[in-house]
Amino acid sequence: MTSQVSSPAEHADGSVVGEQRKPAGTKDVRRLDRVIIRFAGDSGDGMQLTGDRFTSETASFGNDLSTLPNFPAEIRAPAGTLPGVSSFQLHFADHDILTPGDAPNVLVAMNPAALKANIADVPRGAEIIVNTDEFTKRAMHKVGYPTSPLEDGSLDGYSVHPVPLTTLTVEALKDFDLTRKEAERSKNMFALGLLSWMYHRPTEGTEKFLTTKFAKKPDVAAANIAAFRAGWNFGETTEDFAVSYEIAPATAAFPTGTYRNISGNLALSYGLIAASAQADLPLYLGSYPITPASDILHELSRHKNFGVRTFQAEDEIAGIGAALGAAFGGSLAVTTTSGPGVALKSETIGLAVSLELPLLVIDIQRGGPSTGLPTKTEQADLLQAMFGRNGEAPVPIVAPQTPADCFDAAIEAARIALAYRTPVLLLSDGYLANGSEPWRIPETDELPDLRVQFAQGPNHTLNDGTEVFWPYKRDPQTLARPWAIPGTPGLEHRIGGIEKQDGTGNISYDPANHDFMVRTRQAKIDGIAVPDVEVDDPHAATTLVLGWGSTYGPITAAVRRLRAAGEAIAQAHLRHLNPFPANLGTVLKAYEKVVIPEMNLGQLATLVRAKYLVDAHSYNQVNGMPFKAEQLATALKEAIDG
Fold it and tell me: What's the alpha-carbon Rg for the chain, to the nearest Å?
């Protein structure tokens, strides 16, 4: 869904505003400037769908938002168990926000497992809506509750709303020709209706969505809509919910434009399509399904009308092999994967370095090593991207910082690959891939011109005057070799994985030539034009926090908190990790202290220390979850004071 917003204005991450007013009816309406809601239940309870729908309606209303889906790796984890809990957190506000929020103001717990798995994150005084129908002795025993938390006083510090969601849903659907089990499946829509009433969310979009989703099963669509409306009406009529809440649109948060809610993987997909259009090249994706990258394959397969070809290969190696072949044939070639797949693709990435062909390798990072944590986030593939190939095989590395920024990062990666004839690694992660935020849809004239010139004829004259085509004769500015499309008359040439002679491309085992080619390939990457890193330092700080990738939101939120408390701290964030921006060394040496938060054990810090001899302090987390702003603010305050 899209919405229109007006001119920009910056607003720090705020808290509850106490203004209240009385509506025409009997219930109070309290105005807030932001709220954090978490839906939690079994992985089969539809929590991701519920969160997605609430997010879509919130986006159409015009709030700024940020989301954090969190779900098990199993297709259907054991029902009622802690490992089987799926959750979806949404932070939305009337101003510019940066993260899904540290702690939920509202927890919707569909069963005892959902309550137990999430209660530690819920601050005292927050609202908890529990589905009392699921709090049976057996269900509570399964997760280690000896007594009911709804009755033993353990929730006394919270505002608890016991709601028999299952019973109410079944009652609302009693006139439908459904079994009890079928009716119970709609309880997530009842919960969505209730929360939509509580926070004055639009309802038309959800009803239209349900009608479309179940177009071939109109009875199921009607039942879900009925459950959704019943939840809304329950909130309107029950005495347990005496207050509803309003969060005004974020009309001053963004530049004027047309916005839509977008996830990182969707933004990446659109960025790839836009890059192919701007390059006037067909887009080819050779991929093998892997969490959390598979959404890109699914999305691109829908866009054949834009000249997109997708190939679901039998394995990771075949996927990148097909993509590299497409690059040889003149396509904008892409392969998508996660960390384990990058390991399998490493030999072919090295081949692409040798062939010097444009290829986008998109790594949606997840917890490792090996299979690791397929549905949890991490940014621990940086050193693999930098060095994970045999021999000297340098590859440019680009990293987006927010879900919406994945669009621009894809275009930037394509620019580098096409201009410099090189594979490029784009490092996103599960947090960005599955999270979402508003994205301003750009005008086509805002996008860069990525068109390339294929080789058309001979490019070298021999001593005897003969004109020939040399496949490794380089552009003096970019050091890129010519891109010759197979079948072009007169441009027959040899490329491959065995070392080539400079210029001619003939196989060469000459030591001096190999040394020259290795250094030239490195010089090509080192010479890539990337923008200088920008530093945000309004108060002449002595401490700099440096980040990369998805840590941007938590770091920026933490920096805002510190500055609001009177602390001076500078911030810089890297998009280009190879090569580094030319001014990075100067920036780092201008500060007494440099702190680098990463969701790994210090990989960027290792690179920075090695290259610039700066005593960077590493702050690390590898628990499969993004940083919390308050956690980072505390760590950064300690660094400032230390």
Answer: 27
